[in-house]
Amino acid sequence: MELICKAILFDLDGVLINSSSVVERHWERWAISHDVSFKHVMEVAHGRTSAEIIRLVAPHLDAEQEGRNREAAEGIDTKGLEVYASAYDLLRGLPAGSWAVVTSGNLQTATTRLRYGDFTPPPILITADDVRRGKPEPEAYLLAAQGLGVSPEQCVVIEDAPAGIEAAHAAGMHTIAVATTHPPKALSKADIIAFELTSVLVKKEGKQLRVIVEPMHSV
User: Fold this and answer.
1) How many CB atoms lie within 10 A of CB 35?
2) Would strands 155-159 and 7-10 be described as parallel, antiparallel, or unpaired?
3) What is the DSSP string of 151-177?
4) Which of 74, 154, 158, 205 fits as disulfide partner to 26, beta carbons 3.0 to 4.6 Å?
């Protein structure tokens, strides 16, 4: 399957970096310390900011402050991080100014993980610190498109979480989901579902990009 675009917007965690062990470790500590169901936390965690997750699972707490406290610890933790196969090659092959990273993590967390992965700094990096309303709202993806100087309909988003897919569609963008953190059924609203980045190939054609995806056979 193929999509034509001018820019590709990448989620970070679950797409370029496997941070599951770090994320789960810190959320489990937080859940235990606040007598909150860790299972409930993980059911809503992927693709959302810390504050939004806390509002969903513990509305009696100060979500903003709790989120900042939790992220301060997670944001410097690199134990267990892994770069997904083909992430380097895919990013290196993209023309300058044709891609961005859009994450629900804060700037410290995103910077730590990008440096850990030894990635080239993205032309545009949008984090939770840049938006008032995070995913599943479209603000973050719209800001990335604006920063790259392209219209939303000229963007393809690569995501791993339902909240991110919802955000991208609300922004008017096409989506490719990678089934790294969620089963395919949970990603069914994406335009295309692939196993991970190894299934994605990008070719430059003039001023456009042809994104070729080997989809999963079963959704």
Assistant:
1) 7
2) parallel
3) -GGGEEEEESSHHHHHHHHHTT-EEEE
4) 74
Is residue 13 annotated as part of the catalytic site, yes or no? yes
Asked if 195 contacts 179 with a C-beta cutoff of 8 angstroms, the reply is yes
Pick from 39, 74, 75, 72: nearest CA to 57: 39
Q: Give the domains, in start order, of the chain with CATH numbers.
A: 2-18+80-213 (3.40.50.1000), 20-74 (no CATH)
At 201, list the tokens: 């190939």
Residues whose CB is less than 8 angstroms from the CB of residue 59 and which lie 6 or more positions away in sequence, other chains included: none
Amino acid at 6: K
35: left (phi over 0), alpha (psi -120 to 50) or beta: left
Helix (H, G, I), strand (E, B) or coil at 117: coil
For the question of residue 89 being annotated catalytic, the response is no
Could you say which of 13, 130, 160, 191 is catalytic? 13
- pTM for this predicted structure: 0.86
pLDDT in tens, 30-47: 999 999 999 999 888 777
What's the token pair of residue 211? Answer: 């994104």
